[in-house]
Amino acid sequence: MRPTLNILSDEMIDRVLVEAKRIMAEVGMEIRGPGMKQRLLDHGLKTDASGVRVLFPGDVVDRAIATAPKSFILYNRDGLPHAELGGNNVHFVPGSSGLQILDHRSGEHRLTNSTDFVEYARLCDGLEHIAYLATAFSTNKDIEPQVSDAWRLYMSLTNSKKPVVSGAFSEHGTPRMIEMMQLFRHDRAELVAKPMSIFTITATGNFRFSEDSCQNLIDCVEAGIPVEIVPVTLMGLIAPVTLFGALVFHLVDTLTGITMTQIVKPGAPVLLGGAPATFHMKSASSPMAAIEAQQLNVAYVAVAKKLQLPTQAYMALSDSKFLDAQAGAETFGSALLAALAGVNSVSGPGMLDFVLTFSLPKLVFDNEVCGQCLHFIREIRVLDDFPTMDLVTHLRAHDHLITAPHTLKHWPQELYLTQPVWDRENRETWLKTGAKDLNARASEEVERRLAAYQPFETDAAVDAEMRRLVISGMQEQTELPILPAPPEAHEPDAVQGRRGRAGRRRG
Predict the structure, then answer these.
(1) Would you state the torsion angle of the CA atoms of residues 284, 290, 296, 302, taken in this order, to the nearest 10 degrees?
(2) From residue 276, how far is each of 56, 243, 260, 272, 312 by CA, in Å?
(3) Under 8 Å between Cβ of 168 and 216
(4) Is this structure's pTM higher than 0.90?
């Protein structure tokens, strides 16, 4: 049995779906991308009386849901299966679109650069419980913004073979990134068959999709790139403050995005996702870690489960400014909810401050959070537990069970051993090892893992072509930023050993 969580009855799910489809059919969606709007009209969809909003009849939405895959597989850079998204499979991935980094060496919040991103990619590559990468934060400090998305993808692909969650931040940014990924496949057909990325498509809110989102969706779907439809549902500002009202608004956006993907290409892989937040009525902020936002996450995931659609959610993150008690509580609480709800792709580890700030120490801390949550939701089975009399007899004879055959057989899989970033030492040992607090331990773990990073080769011609593609989009810069050299290759250290143990934990 796998531990699960569901906060909605089937009857309530049916009610919110009926209401969402009614709004889609009668109010519709403003589709600002002319190419997408024309495709919808060519498919037979109508507009409202103003001609501005496209109406989505219920039967069209139902057909789209039926043709969307129930699951799909992400492949790594080498074309090997890496992660299956669907069912109750849970994968944690760093959050995206940060603007600053909390520098663990200086303690300052500052704009990010390419060196920061390379260190992040190398760190993330070795984290056992972070399934794949994301283009976690911008690097506009040293690269032109119109090519920054492709540049981050280049740095991801050359520093990790894991898949990556990415996306374009301009209307014409996706084709360049698709060309880069295709360099690691024989042809476009193989890229379609073995996708290595998920691209985020953001619903604008107020029942509209922007020109950028529409064109990026078309480009991704036609190239076989899986997409996640991610509305930023702001409860109390542009969505109802109550759960069911916000859920209906959220489903209007996500189901519209899913319907458009299936109209462009039936069978295109798509995730029903989101990044909800509440509107703080006193501070006028938008906390994504608010408990009501987590409730909305779990609710729309429950709806997606009934529709048998893969899911994504922004969880396992914090609105705190530092790696502190609030960050730990918000991250662990939402990560466990995500794991119990069976969110297929959980975006958030490493993020602080309303997803504006990224922290490498928080990422290694979150790696442990994610590991414990994955351990909690593993299948619960009877493991030589019954009959129990042999264990009772051993305890009475020896006053402990530490050397019992049952313990020796099962403890490596049953007991999760945390890494040094978590304090599980007694006070005497803690004092002898320097009495380090969480930030000190996490920062040390970042540096140790960066030093242990195992570099790998990228074909020189492929590397040169990716760099050419980035440069071709530049307007003023003439050279790409200089990136840090990888550490010298060395024998795997204890990090690699723990990777093996982590695999056994999750198995």
Answers:
(1) 160
(2) 23, 11, 21, 13, 12
(3) yes
(4) yes
CATH superfamily of 1-380+416-507: Trimethylamine methyltransferase-like (3.20.20.480)
**Strand, coil or helix: 333:** helix
Residues 233-254 pLDDT 10s = 999 999 999 999 999 999 999 9
How far is the C-alpha of 430 from the C-alpha of 230, rounded, in Å? 43
| pLDDT tens readout for residues 72-90 | 999 999 999 999 999 999 9
Compute the half-sphere exposure of residue 359: CA atoms within 13 Å on the CB side of its CA: 32
Helix and strand counts by DSSP (H, E) for the chain: 18, 20
Q: What is the mean pLDDT of residues 17-45?
A: 98
Beta-carbon neighbour count of residue 264 at 10 Å?
Answer: 19
| Helix segments in 6-162, DSSP class H | 10-26, 34-42, 58-67, 114-125, 145-159
Q: How far is CA 169 from CA 107, 194, 406, in A?
A: 29, 24, 55
Spell out the alpha helix ranges (H) of 170-242. Answer: 174-182, 188-193, 211-223
Residue 165, SS3 per DSSP: strand
Burial classification of residue 492, based on how many CB atoms lie within 10 Å of its CB (0-12 exposed, 13-18 middle, 19 or more buried): exposed
Q: Give the start-to-end residue ranges of the domains of the chain.
A: 1-380+416-507
Q: Which two tokens stand for residue 427?
A: 């006070």
